[in-house]
Model the fold of this input.
Amino acid sequence: MIKSFLDARNLILDNTLQLEAESVPLVDLVGRILTRDFHARWDMPRWDNSEMDGFAVNALSCRHFVQLLVAGYIPAGSSAEGFSVRPGTAVRIMTGAPIPAGCDAVVPIENTEFDGERVTIKKAVKHGDYIRFRGSDISADEVMISTGSVLRPAEINLLASFSLESIPVFRRPRVAILSTGDELVAPGEIPAAGQIIDGNSWSLAAAVKEIGATPVLLGIAQDNDESLGEKIALGLKADVLITSAGVSTGDRDLVREALENAGVKPVFWKVSMKPGGPTAFGLQQGKPVFSLPGNPVSSMIGFEELVRPALLKMMGYQEVLRPLNKARVRGVLANESGKTRFLRVRVEKTATGLVAKSAGDQNTGILSTMIRANAIAILAAEQTRFSHDDEVDVQLLGEVERPYDQS
Ligand code: AMP
Ligand code: MG
Done:
C-alpha cells in the first residue's frame, strides 16, 4: 500500500476531523480559532462621543474669536443627560464623553482659550468636527469575526469591547508521542556502547508545542509486544498518537503489529516520499495514529509534511499547509529518488526575490543539515534536476529575515 505523497496527505486530511468547541477566557484566547461567526452585539461606538478634550459647541454659533459661555462639564464616564448646547454657550467635554443635545462639533482645547467662565474659539469650526458618531466603526449585527479566524490581540480587544468574557474556540489536541527501540535511552543518561539517545520525542514535542497543541510524552517503548502494547494503550487515550521508529523494513514491523493489536485500522503504511517513506497512518475509532520513521531527519520531515497539517485541521485552521514560495536555485538541486523529494535548503531574501541553496549533505542520517536549513524545497517525483537560477518550490520553516544592511 504505497501512496503517492499527495494521496497520503489527502487521505490523512480527509480522515481528520476538527475537535469540538470549548469556552476559553479572554486572557487565553490569543492564537485560538473561532468555532462560529461572531456578530456585533451593538453599535460601536454606542453613542456619539467626543474625539478630543475640548468644548462641545454648535458649529453655526462659532466664528473666529467668538466667546461662548461655558455652561457645564462632561467628563469621560458621565452621561450627557441634563446638558445642552444653546446658542452662545459651550459645554466642556472630555475624550470619549457623550455628546450633549444641541452640539454638532467639538473644538479641541488647543484651538481655544478658556478663562474659567468663557471660552474663545480660535479656529474655524464645521459641522461634525471631532465627533465619533454612533455606529461609525461597527454596526449592530454585522459579522465581525468569521468562523475559522485566528484570534489576534485586535480581535480579542473587540470581543472584550462587546463585554464577552469567554468565547467558544476549537479545542487543541493532546498529542501522545512514543519513541520505540531497544537501543534508546533518555537524555541525561550516558549512552553505553550501541545505545542512542532519544532525540525524536523532543523534536516532535517541540513541533507539537510550536503550533499550540499539547504534547504528552510517553517515553520509550522496548522492541517487544508487551512494552509497545502498554505504551500504545496509554497513547490512545490522547487525541492523536505519534510513534517513531520500528516501521522500516527489517524491523519486523513490530510497531505496526502492535498498533493493529490495539485496534488501529491501517489506512496506509508507506509513502512515496524521501525522507519519510516508511510513514504509516491508521485510525482507532476515528482517532489518528501516525507511525513515523526512526531516523531523526525522517521523523521531522514526516511530521512537518503529514502530521502538522492534520493537527492544524483538528485545531480549526482553514489553511493547514505552509505556503509554497518560488525560489531561484543556487548550485544544483536534484531528485534521483523517483519519489517526492524534500531537500533541506537555506533560503535567503535578495532584492530580486528568494534564493535557495542546499543546506548540505542530504543523506537522511545527517542531522546537521536540518540545523542549517530554514526551508524545505519540494521536488516532485518526475522533476529530476534544478540548475542554477531555475525556480523551485520552497516551504519556509518560519520567517526568513532580511539582512540588516539592505533597506
Ligand atoms: P528504525 O526505524 O527503528 O530502524 O530506526 C532508524 C534509525 O533511527 C536507527 O538508527 C535508530 O537508532 C534511530 N532512531 C530511532 N528512534 C530514535 C529516536 N527516538 N531518537 C533518535 N534516533 C532514533
Ligand atoms: Mg528500531
Observations:
- Residues 49-132 form a domain with the Molybdopterin biosynthesis moeA protein; domain 3 fold (CATH 2.170.190.11).
- The first strand starts at residue 2 and ends at 4.
